[in-house]
Amino acid sequence: MRAGSRTTRAMTRRPRSPIPMLFGLGLCALLALPAAAQQNSGGVPPYEPDLLKLSEILGALHYIRPLCGAAEGTRWREEMQEMLDAEQPSDTRRGQLIAAFNNGYESYRQVYHSCTASAQLASQRYLEAGAKLSRDIAARYGSN
Question: In the chain, which stretches have pLDDT less than 70?
Fold first, then answer.
């Protein structure tokens, strides 16, 4: 993950959505998965595609939320780091997860230079998708 410059734009304050908090709760449940139970015989957990997608979502949120005025600082990068710390992936898996995060960040950085209605919609949809994905992974694989 690399530092990138972002331009933040002051926006009229709206009531805060509970989605960021719910996303964090879903990710907390995901982080509770026992590392030893996460891996199948190939050394990659069965939910790897979901983790890659979640990493990409976190990267996109790391760019687009501050762009649209969310005062969250480095929250999404920190969530990614916590996921990596909990997963304790091999160097190869770690590289793939970080590449997915960076891809999410870069894809939005290339498209959005200011907070537009489309950027706000993308942010909201990614918050919802990330929260759902976190909950689904924890529900599906948390009891293994």
Answer: 1-42, 143-144
Of 63, 93, 92, 95, the C-alpha closest to 77 is 63
Question: What are the tokens at 32?
Answer: 């509770």
Q: Which two tokens stand for residue 118?
A: 């489309």
Closest CA to 67 of 17, 111, 113, 1: 113
Cα–Cα distances (Å) from 135 to 19, 51, 102, 144, in that order, read 13, 12, 23, 15
Average pLDDT of the chain is 79
Phi, psi of 74 (to 5 degrees): -105, 25
Compute the residue count for the chain. Answer: 144
Residue 10's SS3 state is coil
Phi-psi region of 88 (alpha: psi -120 to 50; beta: other; left: phi over 0): left
CA distance 104 to 62: 9
Q: What is the pTM of this model?
A: 0.75
Question: Residue 93: which H helix or E strand, with range?
Answer: helix 91-111
